[in-house]
Amino acid sequence: xxxxxxxxxxNALNPNATFSAKSIDSIEWLGETTAISQVDIQAKLxxxxxxYSTEAYARSRKAKYNALNQLELISDDAIxxxxxxxxxxxxxxxxxxxx
Length: 99
Description:
mainly alpha, 5 helices
């Protein structure tokens, strides 16, 4: 998920909404779309931002996990009787703990 924007809040409130806007202060509702209040949009945006912040650790972990060559580490551990892969995973989890 990308950093939430007011457009995401509108789409979360009404997936079928059609609108044109450059900012939350200048929304033009198009077609048959019923206008959504700025207060409701801001409340939903705050909710989306909170959820995004809560998952920051997961995004950070994923980036580190993706940088590991996990299959090679697992294979080498099986051959050598080592715990390199498990150690790397635990280090990432320690660096980015769940809130």
